[in-house]
C-alpha cells in the first residue's frame, strides 16, 4: 500500500481510467467552483449567488451566455466566463491529463496559471502514486509550486515561495527582516536523516531542497522529468544531471523555466553572457530518448539538454509545459 501525500492535490476527488489517467468527476469540478476566487462575495448579486449554488449541485450543467450576462458585476462576469471555459475544456477532454495536454498544445487562453498548477499537481500525484522517496516528491514540487532560491555556505537551496512570503510577512519591519538573514536558510533542508518527516508535512511545503550540493536532489529532479514525460507522452527517456555542458555538438535544449530559456537562447546564438547570468543556472540535465526513432532526425542519438535557472531576484518558476511542447518529437 502506497503512502499518502499531497492531499491538497484533490486526487481523492477523482478516479483512474483504464489507461491510468484521472477522470474528470463531478466532485473534482465542484471543488473548482468552491475555490475562494469563485465564491460570491457578500455584495454579489442574486444571479451570481444562484449560478454558484447551481454549479455546486450540478457542475456539468450547461450555462448560457444570458446567465453570465445577467451578473451585475463586470469582474464577476469575466471570472465566471473564464472558469466555465476551463470547466468545458475539462469536460471535452474527459481526463485531467487530456485537458492539460490540450491546454499546452492549443493554448491556455485566459486560463489562470493557478488552474494550470493545480492540474500539474494532480497529474504528478497520479504519476508518482507509488513513490516512496521524499527526495523525488520534494523535487516534484518545483513543477507546480514557485520556489525562492537562497544560499547557505555557498549551496543553493530552493524553498517554497509562498512559505517564504508568509514568513517574511511575519517580520515586524524591514530592518528586522534584514537582520534576520535569509528566510530560505531557516527552513529544514531535506536530508537522508530527516526525510521521514516529509510524509507528515507534504502539504505544508516547508522543506528546502539543496539543489546546489546534494546530488540526491538533482537526481530526484531528473527522475521527476522522466516520470512527467513518460506519463503524459508515453515516451521512455532517461535523464542525467550534469555539472557542465562540454558538448560542442549542442543540437537541442529545453529551458525548464523562462529565465533558463532566455539564457539558453543566448548561448545557442553564441552571444556573450555576463557571469551573473551564467551563475543563475542552478541545474543541467541531459535527456536521452530510449527509442531514438521517437525523436526528430536532426537530434540523432544526441541528448536534449535541459536547463533550470533562477531570475535575478532568485525566483524559480518551472514551466513543465516546456517539456511537452519543447522536446523534438518525431511526427506521428
What can you tell me about this protein's structure?
The structure is a single chain. The protein has a 5-stranded mixed sheet. It has a 4-stranded mixed sheet with strand order 5-7-8-6, sandwiched between helices. It has helices at 26-33, 46-57, 65-69, 74-93, 96-106, 113-127, 134-140, 161-169, 174-179, 215-233, 258-268, 275-278, 321-325; strands at 147-152, 155-160, 188-189, 207-210, 237-242, 253-255, 281-289, 304-309, 315-316. It folds into 2 domains: 7-127, no CATH class; 133-332, no CATH class. By secondary structure, it is an alpha+beta fold. The protein has 13 helices and 9 strands. The two termini are 37 Å apart. The mean pLDDT is 92. Helix 1 runs antiparallel to helix 2 and helix 4 packs across helix 5. 40% of the residues lie in helices and 13% in strands. A hairpin with a 2-residue loop joins strand 1 (147-152) and strand 2.
User: Based on helices, strands and strand pairing, what is the structural class?
Assistant: alpha+beta
Number of domains: 2
Along the chain, the helix and strand elements come as HHHHHHHEEHHEEHEEHHEEEH
Query: How far apart are the termini?
Result: 37 Å
Strand order of the largest sheet: 3-4-2-1-9
Largest sheet: 5 strands, mixed
Number of strands: 9
**Average residue-wise pLDDT:** 92
* Percent helix: 25-40%
What is the overall shape?
globular
Beta-strand proportion: 5-15%
Low-pLDDT runs: none
Radius of gyration: 22 Å
Amino acid at each position: 500500500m502506497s503512502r499518502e501525500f499531497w492531499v491538497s492535490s484533490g486526487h481523492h476527488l477523482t478516479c483512474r481510467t483504464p489507461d491510468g489517467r484521472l477522470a474528470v468527476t463531478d466532485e473534482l469540478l465542484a471543488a473548482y467552483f468552491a475555490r475562494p476566487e469563485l465564491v460570491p462575495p457578500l455584495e454579489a448579486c442574486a444571479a451570481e449567488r444562484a449560478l454558484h449554488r447551481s454549479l455546486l449541485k450540478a457542475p456539468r450543467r450547461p450555462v448560457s451566455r444570458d446567465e453570465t450576462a445577467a451578473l451585475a458585476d463586470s469582474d464577476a462576469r469575466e471570472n465566471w466566463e473564464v472558469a466555465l471555459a476551463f470547466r468545458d475544456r475539462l469536460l471535452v477532454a474527459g481526463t485531467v491529463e487530456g485537458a492539460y495536454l490540450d491546454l499546452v498544445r492549443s493554448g491556455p487562453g485566459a486560463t489562470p496559471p493557478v488552474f494550470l498548477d493545480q492540474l500539474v499537481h494532480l497529474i504528478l500525484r497520479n504519476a508518482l502514486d507509488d513513490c516512496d522517496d521524499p527526495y523525488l516528491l520534494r523535487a516534484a514540487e518545483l513543477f507546480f509550486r514557485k520556489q525562492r532560491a537562497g544560499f547557505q555556505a555557498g549551496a543553493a537551496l530552493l524553498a517554497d515561495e509562498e512559505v517564504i512570503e508568509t514568513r517574511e510577512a511575519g517580520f515586524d519591519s524591514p530592518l528586522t527582516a534584514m537582520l534576520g538573514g535569509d528566510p530560505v536558510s531557516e527552513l529544514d533542508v531535506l536530508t537522508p536523516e530527516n526525510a521521514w518527516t516529509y510524509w507528515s508535512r507534504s502539504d505544508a511545503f516547508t522543506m528546502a531542497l539543496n539543489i546546489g550540493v546534494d546530488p540526491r536532489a538533482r537526481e530526484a529532479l531528473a527522475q521527476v522529468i522522466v516520470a512527467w514525460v513518460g506519463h503524459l507522452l508515453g515516451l521512455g527517456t532517461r535523464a542525467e544531471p550534469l555539472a557542465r555542458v562540454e558538448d560542442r555538438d549542442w543540437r537541442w535544449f529545453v529551458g525548464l523555466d523562462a529565465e533558463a530559456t532566455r539564457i539558453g537562447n543566448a548561448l545557442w546564438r553564441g552571444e556573450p553572457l555576463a557571469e551573473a547570468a551564467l551563475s543563475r543556472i542552478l541545474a543541467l540535465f541531459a535527456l536521452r530518448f530510449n527509442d531514438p526513432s521517437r525523436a526528430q532526425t536532426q537530434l540523432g542519438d544526441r541528448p536534449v539538454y535541459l536547463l533550470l535557472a533562477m531570475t535575478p531576484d532568485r525566483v524559480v518558476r518551472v514551466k513543465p509545459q516546456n517539456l511537452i511542447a519543447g522536446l523534438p518529437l518525431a511526427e506521428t
